[in-house]
Amino acid sequence: xxxxxxxxxxxxxxxxxxxxxxxxxxxxxxxxxxxxxxxxxxxxxxxxxxxxxxxxxxxxxxxxxxxxxxxxxxxxxxxxxxxxxxxxxxxxxxxxxxxxxxxx
Length: 104
Hints:
With 104 residues, the chain is α+β, with helices and mostly antiparallel strands.
């Protein structure tokens, strides 16, 4: 008995950011298309409304960490003061934008 003979595996990273069939793409497109800073629950709700899929907040958080490692992607976050937990908000900025950090 022989194992499957896979010799050519396509690199799917190129279309991941704009693929609505994966969490990576849904998360990226919601952040990219929003002008507002968004909490994880708001991103989750936007994904549900736009794509009809319920992604969990931990999964969205993981996808944001992965997307930040992509070349040319600038997703900023900051902690929201107050409350008992450390809530963060997230926002996508175009590649030429420094996320409001300003020049050093």
